[in-house]
Amino acid sequence: MMITEGVELSTHIYVALLKTCINMKWIARGYTLHAQIVMENLHLHPFINTTLLHMYFKFGMIVEARDIFDSSQFRDLILWTALITGYVEQDKCQEALDCFDQMQEEGMVPDPVTYVCCLKACAVLGNAAKGMEMHRDVVRLGFDSNRIVGNTLVDMYSRFGMLTDAKEVFEKLPEKDIVSWNTIATGYAENGLGAEVLALLQRMKMEGVEPDTITFVCCLRGCSSMRAIEKGQELHAELVKEGLESDQFVSSTLVDFYVKSEKLEEAREILDGMVMRDIVPWTAMVTGYAEHGCDDEVLDCYSLMQAETGPLTMATISSVIFAYAEQGEAEKTYWQFVHMQEQGLLPNSSIFVGLLVACRNSYTLQLGKIVHALSFRLSFGDIIVATAAINMYASCGSMVHAHTLLNALPFKKVITWNALMTGYAHHGNSKLVFGLLKDMQHELIAPDEITFLNVLSVCSHSGLYNEVLDYLEDMWHRGIYPNVKHYTCLIGLLCRTGQLDEAMAMLNMLPIDTGLMSWHAVLSACYKLGSMKLGKHAFDHVVSMDEDHGAAYILMSNVYSDSEIKDEMK
Predict the structure, then answer these.
(1) Where are the PPR repeats (predicted)?
(2) How far is the C-alpha of 124 from the C-alpha of 463, rounded, in Å?
């Protein structure tokens, strides 16, 4: 008995020491402890084995962690879950799901902790089919009432863009904590559903749930997405009243909100009032200045940033380059490229992508050719840069260059095929889009959601209604769930062919909220076809999502004008 107690005591001591090594990141001491454990023949103890596996994963030593698992004589649920958790934490999510399948094949029944890890893996991988399969298993096993499992399901569906499913899981939770509320709020914010975030905040207050900083951050992001400036300012005032404005996370989000609301003075005032300023608010501020062509302020921020946070980082330079790039400021983007090298920063693939995006948006083909050649000469000819170059050539109308570049690539991925396909779709060349789809399938490259968007786009503009339905069905069979843009192709086709009633019926039947694009398409069609009643209905939907949507007011005004003219002619 004393020997047994002694072994147990040694086991707990070693586990405590291993956890100390993990917390202190003492890799060498962890190795030494592992060797000592083997010498004392304690390495087969399940508790120690699990802790060793956890330690090696925390150190990023995946091979060593797997060796611990493979050499274990007792693979219980705790050890399997530790292995799966480690893979997920190390961004090896497919390996985690493979282990999940393997453990079930060996007769092991997962518990809620296992499912939480695997649902996170599905979310990261975008594997909606597997995630939905696990959800069904969770319900069958009765784990759906577990709050942590429920929160994870809400997060997973939100990442898939399946907000209806996320909301359904959220509403069915028997108990909701602040994490539950913030998870659905984050999902709405990430998917640009600002109105839903703000409605959720009101509901929280009505139900006596105290919002925290994360809730307010989601609401501010929602205001940014829907350009609800006044509401954002109200939230700012509420944050000041609650004493939360000084929170670094909140302050950084306020800077970002005011930048995106084009209120740079207010953003700068928040930034200047921050006690602790890291690179995040500075980058938001300098990006805002770049987007509005405030070049002197960009340089001023650079100087202040360097004084406070040290040398400029690649992330900041990259943000400014992409800000100029999105504005089509190819020359300014190029000078940022020169400036970064003067600061001793060497360009990476992301920088060249930004330069090529700038050339694409400004249709500057000659500079684009120079940038592409330079990236190739500096050995940045990877698939991401090549894809950006194909996009640039296609946008500049040089489809020959784009197609030649694709053919020259030794390895092609779906993103490169999509880049060329997008170019042909933009130019309305449906024959070549379908040809590229066949070539992809011949090379055994599976189409993704962007591939289908290109195909649906040309089908929509070519009036191929049955083909649109066939491709949407094919997406479902492949486990690719259509999003707003895919369904908008169908709605757009119905509108262009004058089938407004069918378009409205389809909008009400669809499994997701199609947002502004589809309703704007309906409103445009109502103007062209002179449909006053449906036009008013579509207009109400558009302004409910974006009250400052100028184009909607113009279209509706034209609908009214045309209707009055027709009445006068009668």
Answers:
(1) 76-110, 177-211, 247-281, 413-447, 448-482
(2) 36
* 105 contacts: CB under 8 Å, gap ≥ 6: none
Task: Read off the pLDDT of residues 326-377 as tens digits, 9 standing for 90 and up.
Answer: 888 888 888 888 888 888 888 888 899 999 999 999 999 999 999 999 888 8
Torsion sign, CA atoms 302, 306, 310, 311:
positive
> To the nearest whole percent, how much of the chain has pLDDT over 90?
55
Comparing 121 with 376, the larger pLDDT belongs to: 121
* Helix, strand and coil in the chain, % to nearest 5: 75, 0, 25
DSSP state of 463: T
Token pair in block for residue 74: 């007792």
Closest CA relative to residue 288, chosen from 301, 277, 276, 275: 301
pLDDT of residue 422: 94
Instruction: Please state whether the predicted TM-score (pTM) of the whole model is above 0.70.
Output: no
Q: Report the C-alpha gap between 89 and 96 in whole angstroms.
A: 10
Structural contact between residues 492 and 460, judged by C-beta atoms closer than 8 angstroms: yes
Does residue 405 contact residue 390 with C-beta atoms inside 8 Å? yes
Q: Up-side HSE of residue 127: CA atoms within 13 Å toward CB?
A: 17
Q: What whole-number distance in Å separates Cα of residue 128 and Cα of residue 140?
A: 18
Give the pair of three-digit tokens for residue 17. Answer: 């020491």
Residue 1's pLDDT is: 32
Tally of CA atoms within 13 A in the half-sphere of 230 that contains its CB = 3
Distance from C-alpha of 89 to C-alpha of 91, rounded to nearest angstrom: 6
Determine the Cα–Cα distance for residues 234 and 128; give it in Å rounded to an integer.
37
| Per-residue buried b or exposed e for 395-412, using 16+ beta carbons within 10 Å of the residue's own CB | bbebbebbbebbeeeeeb
Choose among 181, 119, 173: nearest CA to 147: 173
